[in-house]
Amino acid sequence: MKPPRIPVRLLQLALPSDVREDITGDLEEVYARKLRAEGARRARVWYAREAVALSLRFGLERWLLRRVRPERSSLLNAVSVLDFKLGMRMLVRYPGLTLIGGLAMGFAIWLGAGAFETIRQIGFATLPLPEGDRIVAIHNLDVSAARPKPVRVHDVLDWQTSLTGIEEVSAFRQYQRNLLVEGRGAEPVDVAEITATGLRAARVAPLLGRLLLPEDERADAAPVAVIGYDVWQDRFDGEANVLGRTVGLGGTTVTIVGVMPAGFEFPVAQSLWIPLRLDAIAYPRGDGPSLTAFGRLAEGVSLAEAQLELTTVGARTSAAYPDTHRHVRPRVTSYTAALMGISPRDAKYLLSSNLFLVILVVLICGNVALLMFARAATRESEIVVRSALGASRGRIITQLFAEALVLGTLAAALGLAAAGYGLRWALHVAEIELNGGRLPFWFEAKLSPVTIFYALLLTLLGAAVAGVLPALKATRQSQSGLRAATSSGWTFGGVWTAVIVSQVAVTVAFPMTTYLMWRDIQEVRTLDVGFTETEYLAAQLALDPETTADTSRASLLTRFEQSYRALERRLEAEPEVTAVTYADRLPRTYHPHRLLEIDAGGAAPLRPQWPGYRVSNATVDPEYFQVLGAPVLQGRGFRVSDVASDAPVAVVNESFVELVLGGRNPIGRRFRYTYFEEWEEPRPEQELGPWHEIVGVVPDLGTSVGDWDPKRAAVYHPGSPVTAYPARIAIHLRGDVASFAPRLRRLALAVDPALRVMDPKPMERLHDSTITFLEFWFQLLLVVSALALLLSLTGIYSVMSFTVARRTREIGIRVALGAPSVRVLPAILRRPLMQVGFGIGAGAVLTGALVYAMAGVVTARGVALLGLYALSMMGVCLLACAVPTRRALKVHPIHALRADA
Amino acid sequence: MSHYTLGEFEQLVLLAILRLEGAVYAVPIVDEIERHTGRAVARAAVYVTLRRLEEKGLISSTMSEPLPERGGKARRCVTVEPAGLEALRESRRMLDGMWKGMESVVGVTG
Predict the structure, then answer these.
(1) Which of A533, A536, A537, A538 is nearest to A728 (CA)?
(2) Mean pLDDT of A870-886
(3) Which residue, among B70, B75, B76, B78, would best test binding to A if mutated, counting the most A CBs under 10 Å from its CB?
(4) A80 vs B: CB within 8 A
(5) pLDDT (average), residues A521-536
(6) Which of A391, A538, A567, A587 is 20 to 30 Å from the Cα of A607, by its Cα?
């Protein structure tokens, strides 16, 4: 395995050519040694750390050497130390700039590093296990329904016997069980029922005893368990003779055969492991418990090569077992991303969002650059004198860069501390949200070395923008200034205009985005779902699988349907219940995205953002629309016979007719799903799902969450409680809806003790979690907007102050010559006004584009509102000009002439 | 050159070079210092020190043939020059001088 690419590239850039070959050779030699001894992850981390250390040492030296004159190179160290000392002195001398600039850069680095670490942990985490990056997940997709298909026993057995590119193919199930220790009572514990190969694939030796063995999976084997370190400590007080003890686990008794070391929670967040038996005889193909499958990539096999082999194996299975696997396509993906539900497309989006943050960092540091340039202007004479005494331009640039780097380093420390704190806080909140559950073991409440390295790069970038840009500008002007023997030559040129324009543009965009988020929350709250939702009680229903003797999926679903029907009958017998219905998703709940294509009968133009028509869908009871009181506007509603029909039919909403068909008659038109959650590559023709015929149109029934969410076009499919499992139930009631919830629970318990009624609440409150999520983003955007505004106004203020200070003499002469204020003002304000104007224009365009990208529509009212908003922002920005302008107009001619004399 | 005073780390690097046999380059030098001193050594510091010692004429270096196990890259093999030996002797002499009579005050460790 080669060393990591980015550190290698960094070394190529930083090391002088005369030592590059031997140093990189040495590193490769040690890297190979570490790879063998300590595994890929540690070796790569070591290499990256060495590369940073060497690059900093040699890169800085090289950079400085290039900029100082040859005869001073022997003073290199002294010069650089002096620069940093000067930088420190500047921080103390200009506390305002230190505070604002430091906060701004710290904020930028906090945002950049925090987001990078979050994205890394969510989408790109490597398992902290030996060669953890080789562990991959294998899962199934059902291309006809455009959704994941659970992995069953036979799938895992097929993969175990057929795959060579993926070794140690294993599977697990996870759940909670009560762990009953004699004399200590029962407490729930997170259990992984895992194949022996699975636990072995983690490559972690037990602390005591042994791992699970293939013999433990035999039907006649004595039930055994391996426990985690925390269970050993908490439930057995770390007793040395814990091995061989029997404990109760759920309804069974198991013997402890091993203890894992502290921190081991593989495969997700478990503390106890029992053997999983892959019994092919017990279940027909396509049946049995739902499993999570994974394996290790064989030596030298890439993910793409493994996928190629898996596709071939999948095609063979499809052909051999068309009844269960005709539309099933297996996929191999990153283990952590798969367990987190992150698709490859999501991962790309996540990664690209970093670019946006880098731009933000550049913009924020651009603002700091503006302040530093204004400060450099006050040191003009110092710079001119240094130039006259022989300091080269490179020398002065080095000094200003070092000053910015000192500020940046302090800011980075601040930003990283805040990011570390923020990460701990976010993980803490996430664990609270999990209601006692645990986050996957690869989540760490600390910043990774990669993130710290990334933050260092951001700091260098920030310092380059904030230090070198003003330095280049200042030194150019000071040199020409020296030649012209004048001290009024410093001006804000094109670069600064660009900085101010982009600052103002971002400042305009942020509050608008925040406002849109706020409006979104309001719209979710006041969303018209098209029927009287206050009369409905909604709840989610699921069956506890462990209480059935036969744990197969088919048995579970059959029992669920029976229990549901019995509950339905009981409910309908209640005097206050008028009707009952079910669906997999109810109005006001989150509806995932689907992309579809329409037959050749004409359609609305495709949105450029998506490679298909983006819709939401739901599987519903044939009587769903009747129960909700939603009229069928065109065609017909569902019939009971549609559920099992070979010719799939669908009902669409009014927005579908408008957004997908461009208002054309939908009845009899056909569509099929092309993408699932937008992330897959386009599928080959034979992998596409079946065509569905549209038979009716209903009003929009609250499938879209807010105005930003363009999934207003919705499709309904008829289904049984089984196809909608785990189903949501909607009960139409007379009288108080909320007070019926306990009654619903009692009825469900009477029907089937294993039928769980989750989260019963009035239908109008189904969006509570959506609101909480949006409010979190709203508050975050509010803080960012406030900071962006503060920075921008500071920037504008400093530009104005600078302009006025530079033109004091001119203003004085004008006033002395009798020019009235009204004539002087435009001359002062012209440039800042133009800059702010351009910025606001750009910001308005940016905001408009953002709104269009999210909502997909442009309305006259929207444009008018945007115009009004732009004008008010102009007013706010001009407020920053008020104080310097007032100062300018108070300039006394005599003072003005004396000041610059 | 005998007026040049070696720093502690420079002495460690020179002594490591002298202790090693065969091809002496940065990787075994780092290992040797770590083995004998029991403390972690910053690789960058070793490279910088080797460069400085060579600039001062205390060591000299030659490039080996490219080696496949190093990705086809050569090693920079170093040897201590007479001036280096002299500087080491001088440093030892100075230290010995300062230590004389101090054992009873500082104590002697095995």
Answers:
(1) A538
(2) 73
(3) B70
(4) no
(5) 81
(6) A587
Q: Cβ neighbours of residue A674 under 8 Å, at least 6 residues apart?
A: A595, A596, A597, A611, A612, A682, A683, A688
With bands split at pLDDT 50, 70 and 90, how would you rate the model's confidence at B109?
low
Residue A32 with chain B: CB contacts under 8 Å:
69
Per-residue model confidence (pLDDT) at position B27: 93
Q: How far is CA A345 from CA A138, A561, A674, A700, in A?
A: 17, 36, 15, 29
R_g of chain A, CA atoms, integer Å = 33
Q: Could you give the CA distance from residue A410 to residue A373 in angstroms, rounded to a whole number?
A: 19
Q: How many CA atoms lie within 13 A of A236 on its CB side?
A: 20
Joined together, the tokens standing for residue A512 give 């608008």
Q: Which of B42, B43, B70 sits opposite A28 (nearest CB)?
A: B70
- Report the distance separating Cα A126 and Cα B54, nearest Å: 43
Q: Please report, to the nearest 10 degrees, the dihedral formed by the alpha carbons of residues B78, B79, B82, B85 taken in order.
A: 90
Q: Quick check: B74 and A21 CB within 8 A?
A: yes
Note the pLDDT of residue A159: 93
Q: Give per-residue pLDDT as tens, A146-170.
A: 677 889 989 999 999 999 999 999 9
Among chain B residues, the shortest Cα distance to A52 is held by B44
Q: Which residues of B touch A56 (CB under 8 A)?
A: 44
Q: What band does A853 get if pLDDT is binned at 50, 70 and 90?
A: low
ipTM score of the complex? Answer: 0.90
Judge whether A702 and A529 are in contact, CB under 8 Å: yes
Query: Token digits for A247?
Result: 């404990």
Contacts of B76 in chain A (CB under 8 A): 19, 22
Residues whose CB falls within 8 Å of the CB of residue A15, separated by 6 or more in sequence, listed in order: A23, A24, A54, A55, A58, A59
Q: Is the pLDDT of residue A187 over 80?
A: no
Residue A602 to residue A669: CA distance in whole angstroms: 10
CB count, 10 Å around CB of B108?
7
CA distance B88 to chain A (A): 24
